[in-house]
Structure formats: structure tokens, C-alpha cells
Fold this sequence. Notes:
Chain A: Residues 5-121 form the Response regulatory domain. Chain B is of the alpha+beta class.
Amino acid sequence: MTILRVLTVDDSRTILAMLHHTLSNAGFEVLQAEDGKQGLEVLKTEHVDVVITDINMPVMDGIEFIKNVRATGNHQSLPILILTTETSQDKRDQGKAAGGTGWIVKPFDPEKLISVIHRVVH
Amino acid sequence: MSDLDDFKATYFDECSELLNELEEQFAAIEAGERDADRLNAVFRAIHSVKGGAGAFGFSALVGFAHAYETLLDYVRDGRIEMSDDVVNLCIRANDIVADHVKAAQTGDALPADYGMEEKDRFDALARGERDDSDDDEGGDPIDDFDIEFVPVMVNLGGYQPAAETSSGVEADDVFDALPMQVEPGHWEIRFTPHRALYARANDPLLLFRELAVLGDMHVRAVLEEIPALVDFEPFAVYCSWEITLVSPSITEAMIREVFEFVDGDCDIAIAQLGNSIAFDIPAPAPAVAKPAPKPAKLTAESDRADLLALADDEVADLLDFSRDSDVAVVPALTAEKPSFTPEPEAPAITVQDTFDEAPSLSFAELAETIAPSPIPKRAASTAVTPLRAPAPAASSDGEESSSGGNRSVGVQSIRVDLDKVDRVVNMVGELVITQSMLTQQMDETLRARYTELVRGLEVLAQTTRGLQDSVMAIRAQPVKTVFSRLPRLVRELATKTGKKIKLETVGENTEIDKTVIEQLSDPLTHMVRNSADHGIESPETRLARGKPEIGTIRLSAEQAGGNILIIVEDDGGGINRERVLQVARDKGVVAPDVNPTDEQIDQLIFAPGFSTASEVSDISGRGVGMDVVLSNIKKIGGSVHVRSWTGKGTRMTLRLPLTLAVLDVMLVKVGVSPYVVPLSSIVETIQCSRASFERVPSGGQVLQVRGEYVQVIDLAQRFEMVSETEPENRFVVLCEAEGSAKVALIVDDIIGQQQVVIKSLEENFERVEGIAGGTILGDGNVALIVDVQSLKTTIVHKNAA
Amino acid sequence: MEALGFRDDMADKSAVAAQNSLQLIAFSIGEQTYGVEITTVREIRAWNGATPLPNTREFVRGVINLRGTIVPIFDLRARFGDGPTSPTKNHVVVVMSVGDKWVGILVDAVSDILTVSRDDIHNVPEGNSIDTELLNGIVTHESRMVGLIDLHAVVSGAKMDS
């Protein structure tokens, strides 16, 4: 069984650290980026099974990031989960319209996080 | 839980960075730069503070940050104008957020109504603009945050509650004849994905897998829509599925939850039906034998049939509906309504296990398995796409090899524990010293004999320097990390004193070693306090003196050689020298018969326990004066100098080393022991035979150098060592103490210059008067670092006493 | 059963012994033998000089470099008021931990590792104030008197003015 690689993209170190902790405990390999641009850089060189991205980020926000990922030929089928505190539908719809696969609402429950990932990745 | 504590520590670190960022942004916003980038940055900062706070349950912080964030959101999208009033409110709000963060960190509770007034103002502002708008985003009254912050993960798809599952109408659209009798536990789902579902990387297989966890599931692919190969559009979606799910405990909500992410990207019909009438369920084995209902089509499109068979085969493999894969294939081809047998013993685990194997199937392999003729091959790779479109692109060969060759993370920055960096810095320090020691060992004979070795040593020297610079750059930080704490201080001081003060900063991107930065905060705070408290006059006084009403404190940082200069200037009244001298005489710091120069008087404000404010002020007072600044700065090898212009202002200059890791020193000998004197404090060295000493009445010596009389300290005497060197062969090391006060140290020999790593004496011993620390020389012996400042100070005290 | 009982008895006895006994590193200054608990000793090294520290009492011999950290050396003979040792390469520095600090004690020679019973430790007789100040107790080992060094007391009062 291969180890799944998760790319986490968030400008908050706290969130990155918590994601890292939760995901690596669950047996994932975790890559990190602090904004969309860095995220794209990682995807250029690294194989990733699933992406978890924040929406509000400097340099390149999550929506732009998702659009860019989807625009890249070989990432059309890469599952992307949107990490959001917005409980209103708005951000999520934007993220979905850009090509987001699903979403996770912060603050996240570790078990739920893992189950949501399994919902979008083999 | 220690993990949680770690996260909290990270969070508070991050908060302090974010708060600094807010200070910076608002400094620019206050100056009129109100572009979208800044507003977005501010919004993000508060958003991040709130996000983390939510994770840790700091509800007071979340509450305030949420209200503030909503205001910022409105400002950002133009619903609220960023007037000066709003800017001021925001700046106040930043301080409140900072207080909330601090309270969360220390665990001290703030008053329940803390920040309420501001929150009400946010609310009022938001409401004022909101009447005509019914946008969904942030549309709730600001104080509704409590409800929003329940960590809700799902339940947003607008599904119908499980109780209302008699959705006969909906079901009728999909299934021809539905049983009227509803029996709990047996569900029929018709699932027709749209193209968008695949475009967003959702995958029917995964949905099925998740459904399979809920109960016993059977899936039948509906393939009637698949056109003849000639009409086949590669990226079109032709396939839909009918799913039977059996479990007594399922609700429609649970099923809807599985489809949560694909809501809107597919047609989905969910119906609950009675077991008895639902489907006539053929046993798997007979199904194989069943003739295909549309044989004509099948024969005409035999290659397509192969293809579909394969595709379905794969589905069957993946889902493990049956141990006999034919079973799954045939129903697909028969495309007859009732499909497969419920397989009650199939546990969810099996399903998942098989899924894990899925990625091992590559397109290349698929293409190979499929018919050898080129046309079907092409068809195969495209036709497979809708069936398992979300196969990870990574399985392509090129990707695999590139990721295999380089597993390192491609991010542009990494965070490293400071301890690790410190260790590297220390070791590089030792390396630099070893290298310089090696170089010193090379005398002329050796140089002539071993040219290769000499060249190697030169390269080593260069590389070591480069390494040192690079390593120091890692630990360097811009001074703005300290500067950005000061605007708030100035605001508070202005409020408390009723003065009007503007803070200007220059050169905040100047970088210094982190160890120096850490030592800088306290002294700088004191200096700025001093300027605000004692320097800047009240608005009335200023106007009366013909000065602008608003006083200015200017903070600047610049690099000057191996030093960094931090200057705190104000345009206040300057130092009141008469008062300073008076206080100094009263306190016995200055003898009655001594008449110090203006510059010397200015410098007196750093004397221990000295305070000029006639009444101890709430701000600078409390018995801690500028002497703290001096001692802190001295501790890190820096100096402070003050200059004042009566009625015009005061300038305090901090001179700091760029790093505390390595010290440039002169190695000298006192008695038989090696000592080092920091190069930064040495003005010049003079051979004693050429120096002109004079006797003073007390019996001591002074040195006359360029018309100035300088105190002389014989280090051998001072350190109680025996000097065996002839007096005329000894050396004067002329040093500069703080300000421009000089002191002449007499040493027995000068050995040379080198770099050393400072080692603490206090780690295993205690502080020794006149010694700033120790260092280890190339030969392994310990040399002591002369503390020029403290030598001078003790002499002054002895004279005064 | 008997055998088992016997073994239990043995185990009990040795446990009591371990609890009650003390291992010392014994070293000599002139004719006198002193000891410190073995657990406090970090390293024993030959005297190789020390950099003198100014403005400290006579018994502070200076500092040495112990693998990159600076460690002070105390002259135990001088500490007992018998004047400074004139050390040779045969003199020994016993490096010990006192609280969170490491210090070196200059002695003439390290003689032995002794196991003594705690019950055999006697109080230092009143009289000589230096003895009562610097010793925790006295123990007799093979008819020799061994003074147990109070390390905290030895290293305190190193500064001139204290």
C-alpha cells in the first residue's frame, strides 16, 4: 500500500502544524506551502495525491490556486479540498466553481478530516 | 496534551507576527495608502488570528476577531468607507486583539465587556451600511458569531431531513415503478454525474466506496446512453448508476452526506422502498447466462463491447461486488433494470482494501490489455476516462520518475528550530576560529615549503567566510520585528500624557542577528518611552515655542561597517542640563567641584538609578531608568551615545554588533595570561615608550593623547598579575567607552588580531568584575575578554567614593 | 521452597545494602583523604594549567576549557587554608557537577573507589570551623579517616569581596 501524499496550503503556521500533525499521525506524507504560488511550485515537482488549501492567503489565494491547478494538464483529476472557516456558502461555492472537489470547515475535527480525505482520494 | 501546547505555542508565535504585520499595514494605511492589497493583508491577518483561536476555543478572541473581521470585510468590498475614524477604530481594535491574544496566552481573563464598545461600533457601522443589502456573505449581525462557530462539517446541502423520506415524486422520475410501501432500510439511488463532477476531481468510485460503508450495496452501471464509437465524445459523460443500499439504520441524510461534495454536479434521486416489491433479484450465476437484451448493438460494436467489458471489469474489481467478476460485467451489458444480488456478507473493509490497489492500474496497462488494433486503443484510453476519470495523473511515467528522483519538498521556505540554527552558528564560529588559527600558524618558511597547503588554506579561509556570512544571514532578522512593537507604545504614551506624538521609522528592513534583536527590544522601549515622556513637550508648550503641535519621534536603523546603528530622535525640548547636573550633584554622582561638559552631562542620564523627572511618572518611572538601557546594551557589546540640543530635541544612538556569535578581538598578554580586547572598542595602540604619561595628584597616571587626558588602567595591576615586562616595552591599548570617554589599558604584549567565540563564565562560575566572558584560543587555552566598560565604571566609582 | 526462601532473603539483604551504602571517589591532599559521592564525578583529568581569573580568592585556580565550555578550577588545598598547591603534571583535576554547574577540584591524587555504609558516617567534630564548613561528615575506611566534601560549600565564596 502506497503512502498518500497530501499537500497542505495555508498561510497560517498554526493550521499547517495541526494539519501536519493530524495527517502524519494518520499515515499520510505531508507537504506544505504557505500560499497558492508556493503550492503550484510544489505541484510542479512533487507527486501529490490530494490537496488541502485555505482560501484567504497572500500572494495567491486559494481560488486562484485551484484555477491554476485545474488549468494544468495533469492535475485535472487531483482532488482539492478547500479549508475554510466561512460557514456561509459563498466562499465554498467560489472554491467549487474554481474546481474544488470538496471542503473542510475549520476548526476541523481530526477524524472528520481523515474521513473527508478518504471521500475524495483512492 | 503536549501536542496541543505545541500548536498553541506556534499559534502565539504566529499571532505576534500577524500583530506586527497589522502594525505595519496600519502605519501605511494611516499615511494614506489604502489600496486593496493592504486591506486584504489586514483582513487575512485577523482572519488567521480568528482561525487559530477557533481551533483552541479562545471564544472571547474569536468573538472580537469575528466582529472586526466582518467590519474589515465590509471595508474591503467598499460597503464601509475607510475614513480616518474607521482607521482609528481599527488601530484600537488591533490593540484589543493583541490584548485578547495575550490574555489567551497567559490565561488571564479580560473583563467580560472588554472591547464591547468597539464591537458595538463595528456592529453599528455594519448595520448602517447593511439595510439595503441582503448579501449572504457576512450578512448576519456581527454578534451572531457563536452560532457560526460551531464546528460544523457537513449538513449544508439543503437536503431533506430523514423523516421526510417519502419523496415519492422525486423517485418516480427515476424509477418506473416504485413500491408504495415504504420499508426502512432499503434504498434505491439513481446517480447521474455531470461533467463538472469529474472536472472537480470527484470520483463515483469513491462515492460508492463511502456508500458501501453505510450498508450492503450493489451498484449497476447504466450504459444505455453510451453512443456508437463514431459518435463517442471523449470527455462526455455517458454513464450513470443505480445503487441499492440495504441497512436498517440508514437515513436519507446519511446518503445525502456522501453526495455532499457533488451536490449540483450530478442528478441524484434517492428513494426508500419496500423489500418485497423492489427489484426482482436474479442470482449472480444465472445472470451470466442471461442473453444480452440488445444483441444487435453489441455485435455491431464488438470492440466497444470489449471496451465496456473491460471498463466494467475494472469497476467490478475495484468494488469487489462479487468474487466472480463476470457477474458484474454481464449485468452491465444486459443493461436490464434489476441487477444484482445483495451480498450481505461483504464487509466494508474488503471494499476499502481493494480500493487501495486501484492506483496500480495505469492507463498504459489498460491500453495494452485492450484490443491490439490502433482504433480501439485510442477509444479505450478515452472511453475509460469517464469511468475512472479521477485516476491520479501521477501514475503517468514521467511524473513517477521525477517524483521518485526528488522526494524533497519543493517549497521555497522551511521553518527550522532556532536551536538547530544556533548550533550551526556556534560551530561555524568555532570553524572560523580554527581556520584563522591555522592561517596564523603559517610562518614564512612553511609558506615557502608548502605552496599547495597555503593555497588550500586560502580557499578554506574564503569558504569559511562565505559559510559564516550565509549562516548569519539565516539567523538575521529585520529590525522591524522590534520596531513594529513601538507604534502601540507611542499611542498609549500619547494618550496617557495628553501629548500628540507621531512615530516615524526608517530602515526597518535592516537586518541584524536574531540574538541581537532579542536584546534590543527592552532598551528600545525604554528609549522611546524616555523620548515620549521627557522629550516631547505638551501641545500647548510646543505651540508656545513655535513648534508644530504634533511631536515626532524618529526611529532609524542603518548598518555601519560591522555595526548597526539604531537612532532614536525626538524634536522635543532636549535634555535639561541644569536639572540633570543638579540631580547628579544631589545624588553624589558628580562631585560638587567638578564641572562636566555638556556632552558629559547628557551622558549622565545613563547613570545607575538616575531619573530626571521631578515626579516619578507613571511611564518612565518606577525606579528603572536609562541605566537599564546602558547595561543591556553593554551586555551585548554595544554602546549608547546621547546628544541633545536645547529646545530642539534629543538623539540617542545605539551602536550594536551585527552578531553576537563571533567577536573580533585583539589578543594581548597581561602577565603570563592571554586576554582579549574587543576590536570595536579599540581606538589605537601605542608603545609605552612613545606614550606621554602624566602623574596626577592622587598618584595615578593619565595619558596625554592629542591634547586629551585619558585615565590609565594597568591591567596587570588591576587583575593582580605580575608583569615581568620592562615598562617601556609594554603597550597602551586606547579604548573608547560609551560616549566618547576613553580609557588607556596597559598590557604587557600585543599578540595579534583574531576572531573569537564568546563563552560564558557564568555558565559554570559567576560574573567576574572587569571580565566580559571567556573564549577558547586555537591552542585550547582559555583567554578572558576584557570588559572595558565595567573597568572604566569601577574606576569612576572608586574616585567618587 | 526452602531454596526460594533463602534466595528471597538474599535479595532483601542486598537491596538494603544498596540503599544504605555509598560509593565514593577518594582523593588525597597531602596525608589527608577526602571523598565525594561517585555519582557527582564527571571526569578525572591530569592537571594541564588553567587561565587565572582576576579578582577571585586564592583557592580559585582559574578556568580551563572542557570540550568548549569554560570550567572553573578550585584548589582544594588552598580552600582548606593550607596555601596554594604547586601543581605538576601528576596532579589531578576531578570534574564534578554541583547543581547545574560543572567545576573542577585540584587534588594531589585520586586514590580509590570506596564503598561505605551510610551508618558509618559521623558528624564532623566541632572545633575547626573550616572543617565543619567544608565537610558533610567523616567516615572511616580501613582505619583511615575520609572527609566527605561538601561541594556546595567548597565552590561558594569564590569572589574577593564575598
